[in-house]
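Hi everyone,

Forwarding the result from last night's run.
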Amino acid sequence: MSSEKALILDFAKTEAMKSILPHPAILSSHGANWEGIHVEYHRQPPNESPEHSLQQHSIGMILSSAIGGVALNGKRYGSQPCQSGEMFIAAAGTDFQSYAVEEQEFMAIAFEPTDFDNTVAESTNSNLIEIIPHWKISDPLILGIGWALKTELESGGLNGTLYVDALKNALSLHVLHHYCAQKPKLQDFEGGLDPSKLQIVIDYINDYLNRDLHLGELANLVQMSPYYFTRLFKQSTGITPHQYVTKCRIDQAKLLLKQPEFSIAYISQQVGFHDQSHFSKTFGKIVGLTPKKYRDQF
């Protein structure tokens, strides 16, 4: 099939892969409040996909050993054993075709090009970013991030969007450094955030503790990329934005637990936990007591 006739798929759309795979995804981030990254977990029977390209940069992670192959931009990699943990990486617009002669379990991760470009916007010219296609590579860091994203989907998003954003940025930065034609030299900022900018972020976090906050949302408050914002925020506070928000939520919960008219379920929702069990587990890990035992002290 010629590249002019290749299907162009938008992975951000629900069931975008329906036209190239026999079965729908077992797990999907569609419907979750994730920004700039899309994840699906599949278990598919033997099949051959039509030639297609994605509007997003993509990573395919093989999770079960099987015999199969791919074609990237017309270059066909013959049928061969694919081991669990191996993967391919392709830029948005790469013509792609896959085939498997055995049942295969895999994850598909796609991230938006604009989001990828903005990861380290202060020091990178997006016009120079070119992801080079790779096939059958092993990368423990990407594999670990993939498993963490799958676990987050399985849990229903218990750790929240700040956690997912941190994984997404780590993944983008790793791809930028290891799988692009040019390796950007990142500017090194020291000294943390300006105190007035830090206060803007802290006030915003405390005003919206009950919301599922995004890293890009916090970075935009001080007009920085998520990568540099995270670095400077940690220099100022000693912890990551995700850890800081969790700390603020637990501090607010401790205050509310001193007021007996509020139920623990109500408090968990008020401080941004949408699952009481997760709230109790996190509270116990940080405070050393369950919410009930903490309340019983007063």
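Residues 161-178 form the longest helix (18 residues).

Cheers,
N.
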